[in-house]
Amino acid sequence: MTETDLVVAVLAGIIQGIVEWLPVSSSGNLSLFLSLVGTDPVVATQLALFMQLGTTVSAAAYYRTEIAEATRSLPGWRPQAAYADDNALVSYIIVASFCTGIVGIPLYIFAVDLAGQLTGGVFIATIGALLVLTGLVLVASESRSMGGKQTPTLFDSVLVGAAQGLAILPGISRSGMTSSTLLFRSYDPPAAFNLSFLLSIPASVGAAVLTVASAGGLPGISPTAAGVALAVSAVVGYLMIDLLLRVVERIPFWLVCFVLGAIAIVGGGLVSVFVPAA
Q1: What is the rounded end-to-end Cα distance, in angstroms, of the chain?
Q2: Which residues pair with 187 in a beta bridge?
Q3: Which of 60, 131, 174, 187 is found 20 to 30 A from 16 (Cα to Cα)?
């Protein structure tokens, strides 16, 4: 691993550790960063998904109590009482994760194929457009009056799982889509964020496995660089999660999506004009 690879791995880990918890698309912003440092768009798309493993460790550590409670309820889980109070969380994770796979796997194949056809500038601008779309969804959810729901239902699980599947596309925020869907369904905002973050754990593991399987190994990164990037993202993610959850309560992240998206669209257009395609 060269010194440049080490720097890129550390920076990628920091970016992933911070933006995973914000509804501004960690995969989109990480793909942008990797593209700007010269990574092929296909590899950038795959690496952005693979890097979620690091923040999965952060989420598992942060929500260890909830995970332990859900694990203890598994032996008593029955389909006929799937959404009873004791089983609701486990049922939500199982059903939503299944729906994520149904929606996300075909979109992953589409995203990798599309990334292979786009030049660097167009790829960056496309991510920017998807960031703006995420911002529009967040604006819509914030404008809706919220209730006090906290316990997920079957219908909510299907909706949230499908919304999370859409986030396989770089630029579509996973946390933004899932938390917005829950807010649309009149969930209490803290409950919406907690349910969103919990669901990220199986989704991120699944995305990383899918990426490694489709790439035939680590996607364009050495084992050492991958280890460094994942370790950094795990540590930064754990240290930042409390802080970032407090920030979410104070800053309208739809505005962040709009700003980042606009910059990416303009920057991608400039790259397309001034940098010849390979």
Answers
A1: 25
A2: 149
A3: 187
